Amino acid sequence: MATRELPDVDPYTAVESLRAALHEAGIVLPSLGVDPASPALQLVELGRVRANVADRLAQALKRKGER
């Protein structure tokens, strides 16, 4: 099986893009940010959220997938 090369994405740019998209859906992830402990891995920390926020996020993703 061949592996697909993923594009190199700046984690700070990814965080701001995700924050903006979530804002449009009326969703706030307070802990959203770049994981400073592993800069080479470019990890984004989504953080912990209440169940109602997770459900709203799931519903927004489902609506987007139906378009």
Distance between the termini: 31 Å
Range of strand content: 5-15%
Count of extended strands: 2
What does the overall shape look like?
A: globular
Order of helices and strands: HEEH
Helix/strand-derived class? mainly alpha
How much helicity do the residues have? 40-55%
Q: What is the typical, i.e. mean, pLDDT? A: 88
How would you sum up the major sheet?
Answer: 2 strands, antiparallel
Low-confidence stretches: none
**What is Rg?**
14 Å
Oligomer: single chain
Q: Record the strand order, biggest sheet.
A: 1-2
- Helix count equals 2
Describe this structure in words.
The protein has 67 residues and is mostly helical. 45% of the residues lie in helices and 6% in strands. It is built from two helices and two strands, in the order αββα. It has helices at residues 11-24, 51-66; strands at residues 33-34, 44-45. A two-stranded antiparallel sheet has the order 1-2. The longest helix is centred in the C-terminal third of the chain and has 16 residues, at 51-66. The protein is globular, with a radius of gyration of 14 Å. The termini are far apart.
What is this structure's SSE topology?
Blueprint: H1 11-24, E1 33-34, E2 44-45, H2 51-66
Antiparallel strand pairs: 1-2
Question: How would you briefly describe this protein structure?
Answer:
The chain has helices at residues 11-24, 51-66; strands at residues 33-34, 44-45. 45% of the residues lie in helices and 6% in strands.
Brief descriptors of the model:
single chain; 67 residues; mainly alpha; two-stranded antiparallel ribbon; 2 strands; globular
